[in-house]
């Protein structure tokens, strides 16, 4: 069963009486344990794709399924619930709660849903090398540490899918590599389906598959075109 | 609770300030409530201590005991479980040995020792002659009179000896002096005439079967039976005072609610993007809204609690002359109303939270 599946998904926006097609009819799917990257120029529709995948907006046409279950056609409330249990978001800027310490960010997940058995908090923080920062607030740590904390937060609820929208945008390249490396490692180890949007083509070396978005059209890229692209 | 409390801990200064404002408002509300209640009580404690059900006045007095005068023979025309004659008169007295400017406004109440209006003596003894009085203990507490002092009436040469003190004896904000009904004749009409078989009184106070004044019958067209509660609310000035304070306190509570509502709303607006991120993570609007409500509740409860302590502390330091009196039930009701209204004020913010679009918050 596919972790996430796009079936003829299309997204259009009305701008006055003009219609902008942000995402052309798209078919796409990935399995658990797969790490895919989506690259493409600004305004090409990458975020639109990712937010539809995360159920933050509904497609104009078509359907998104998560673990074989209808998702995009669900009610707002049900989608929110699915998002909580099945999807981990990692965003460009910090998506941490400013008034919670790193450890409390994870504890919040336990407070919202008390029933689920989750992995050891400190063990997870340790794996991401931020255990020592557990009592720090997001404003007290560096950008790279914040993104690792965001990854920890996303992994903690044991979701099926991880969606990362330019998670390295605010980091220097060394930190960016570290973060993507961790993302790749955890994807494999914890058997997640991870989609990462990035404009940094060098980061795709950690990915199993690379897609390119251009004017709302999603196309898989062959490994050859990537290495030639790297040279330019 | 988790979010609410951790945020308060994180933004300590901000929330301490809000709590401070709530504390001040709660303090003001409690204080005014205490004063209002104390003042209201000072109008009526003497009447309340009678534990009577009705009072009979001449019809033409129009419910005002100051205007009432009747013969004690009317007692025989009344049928009630218990009956007591009462003479009432405002007077100015001064302590024999005091300087001229220490005059006291008091209410003389003339009663019969063997009738139910006879108060309980908390210090000293009951009056036995027409020259003795028992007086409200506030006069002792304010250092104005002590046992065995003599007081003289300004309007005549009569003097009385203070032989006892009683609790809760104020009428229309003046301390009460109980004396015999015969002494009342003298105070009211000057020179005591020879023994008469008719006494002038102001009213007949009655207790009725089952507390229902419908069970009292009067065989005299010119007499009017008034329920004690009506009599109290018709005391001159009483209703005006109670209403004034009630309005002030209600407005204060509403203003408090609006203030906290605005605070919480501004804080919510500042957190829109944080709430948006949490919603993107699938945390429900309901959870976030509950958190804001709990936060409001915690802030208000702490503020009100501190206001309560502040009021209690102030009460200890207040001079006896301030008519401050707290009533547990009132305090609980006022606190509960403030809490409920504050939480209602937070509901504004709930609407905002529900409307936050996580998509906008994260892009
Ligand atoms: N809410 C919206 N209303 C109108 N147009 C939008 C909206 N969201 C995105 N678009 C348009 O859709 C296109 C794709 O945007 P986006 O997915 O954000 O691109 P990317 O993330 O690749 O930079 C852009 O042309 C953008 O202007
Ligand atoms: Mg984008």
UniProtKB/TrEMBL annotation, chain A:
Pfam families: ABC_tran. Residues 4-231 form the ABC transporter domain. The keyword Nucleotide-binding applies. Its main location: membrane. One of its GO terms (cellular component) is membrane protein complex. It is a peripheral membrane protein. InterPro entries: AAA+_ATPase (IPR003593), ABC_transporter-like_ATP-bd (IPR003439), ABC_transporter-like_CS (IPR017871), ABC_transpr_LolD-like (IPR015854), MacB-like_ATP-bd (IPR017911), P-loop_NTPase (IPR027417). GO terms for molecular function: ATP binding; ATP hydrolysis activity; transmembrane transporter activity. Keywords: ATP-binding, Cell membrane, Membrane, Nucleotide-binding, Transport. It is found in: Cell membrane. The complex is composed of two ATP-binding proteins (HrtA), two transmembrane proteins (HrtB) and a solute-binding protein. Part of the ABC transporter complex hrt involved in hemin import. Responsible for energy coupling to the transport system. Belongs to the ABC transporter superfamily. HrtA family. PANTHER family: HEMIN IMPORT ATP-BINDING PROTEIN HRTA-RELATED, IMPORT ATP-BINDING PROTEIN. This is Putative hemin import ATP-binding protein HrtA.
Automatic annotation (TrEMBL), chain B:
Keywords: Cell membrane, Membrane, Transmembrane, Transmembrane helix, Transport. The chain crosses the membrane at residues 15-39, 242-267, 287-309, 329-350. It is found in: Cell membrane. Residues 247-358 form the ABC3 transporter permease C-terminal domain. One of its GO terms (cellular component) is plasma membrane. Pfam families: FtsX. It is a multi-pass membrane protein. Belongs to the ABC-4 integral membrane protein family. HrtB subfamily. The complex is composed of two ATP-binding proteins (HrtA), two transmembrane proteins (HrtB) and a solute-binding protein. Part of the ABC transporter complex hrt involved in hemin import. Responsible for the translocation of the substrate across the membrane. This is Putative hemin transport system permease protein HrtB. It comes from Amphibacillus marinus.
């Amino acid at each position: 069963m596919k972790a996430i599946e796009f079936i003829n998904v299309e997204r259009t926006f009305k701008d006055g009486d003009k219609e902008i097609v942000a995402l052309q009819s798209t078919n796409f799917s990935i399995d658990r344990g797969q790490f895919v990257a989506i690259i493409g120029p600004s305004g090409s529709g990458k975020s639109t794709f990712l937010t539809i995948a995360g159920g933050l907006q509904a497609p104009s046409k078509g359907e998104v399924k998560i673990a074989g279950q209808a998702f995009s056609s669900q009610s707002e409330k049900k989608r929110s619930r699915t998002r909580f249990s099945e999807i981990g978001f990692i965003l460009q800027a910090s998506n941490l709660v400013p008034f919670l310490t790193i450890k409390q960010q994870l504890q919040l997940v336990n407070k919202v849903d008390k029933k689920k058995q989750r992995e050891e908090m400190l063990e997870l923080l340790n794996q991401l090398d931020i255990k020592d920062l557990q009592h720090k607030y997001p404003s007290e740590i560096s950008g790279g540490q914040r993104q690792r904390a965001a990854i920890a937060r996303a992994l903690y609820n044991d979701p099926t899918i991880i969606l990362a929208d330019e998670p390295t945008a605010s980091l220097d390249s060394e930190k960016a590599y570290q973060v993507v490396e961790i993302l790749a490692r955890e994807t494999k180890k914890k058997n997640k389906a991870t989609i990462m949007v990035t404009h940094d083509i060098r980061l795709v070396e950690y990915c199993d598959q690379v897609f390119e978005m251009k004017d709302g059209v999603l196309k898989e890229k062959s490994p050859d075109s990537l290495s030639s692209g790297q040279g330019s | 609770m988790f979010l609410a409390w951790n945020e308060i801990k994180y933004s300590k200064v901000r929330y301490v300030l809000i709590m401070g404002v709530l504390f001040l408002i709660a303090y003001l509300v409690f204080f005014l409530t205490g004063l209002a209640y104390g003042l209201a009580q000072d109008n009526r404690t003497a009447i309340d201590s009678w534990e009577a059900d009705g009072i009979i006045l001449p019809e033409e007095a129009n419910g005002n005991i100051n205007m009432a005068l009747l013969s004690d023979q009317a007692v025989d025309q009344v049928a009630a479980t218990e009956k007591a004659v009462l003479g009432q008169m405002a007077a100015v007295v001064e302590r024999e040995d005091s300087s001229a400017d220490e005059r006291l406004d008091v209410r003389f109440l003339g009663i019969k020792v063997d009738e139910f209006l006879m108060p309980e003596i908390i210090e000293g003894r009951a009056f036995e002659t027409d020259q003795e009085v028992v007086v409200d203990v506030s006069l002792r507490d304010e250092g104005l009179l002590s046992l065995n002092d003599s007081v003289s009436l300004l309007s005549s040469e009569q003097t009385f000896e203070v032989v006892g003190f009683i609790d809760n004896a104020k009428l229309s904000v003046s301390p009460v002096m109980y004396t015999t009904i015969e002494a009342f004749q003298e105070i009211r009409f000057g020179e005591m005439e020879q023994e008469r078989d008719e006494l002038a009184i102001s009213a007949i106070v009655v207790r009725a079967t089952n507390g229902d004044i419908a069970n009292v019958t009067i065989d005299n067209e010119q007499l009017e039976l008034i329920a004690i509660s009506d009599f109290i609310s018709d005391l001159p000035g009483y209703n005006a005072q109670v209403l004034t304070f009630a309005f002030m306190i209600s407005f204060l509570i509403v203003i408090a609610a609006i203030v906290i509502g605005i605070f919480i709303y501004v804080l919510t607006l500042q957190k829109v993007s944080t709430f948006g991120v949490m919603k993107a993570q699938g945390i429900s609007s309901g959870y976030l809204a509950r958190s804001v409500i709990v936060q409001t509740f915690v802030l208000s409860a702490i503020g009100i609690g501190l206001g309560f302590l502040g009021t209690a502390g102030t009460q200890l330091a207040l001079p006896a002359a301030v008519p401050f009196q707290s009533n547990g039930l009132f305090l609980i009701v006022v606190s509960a109303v403030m809490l409920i209204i504050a939480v209602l004020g937070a509901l504004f913010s709930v609407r905002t939270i529900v409307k936050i679009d996580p998509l906008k918050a994260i892009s």
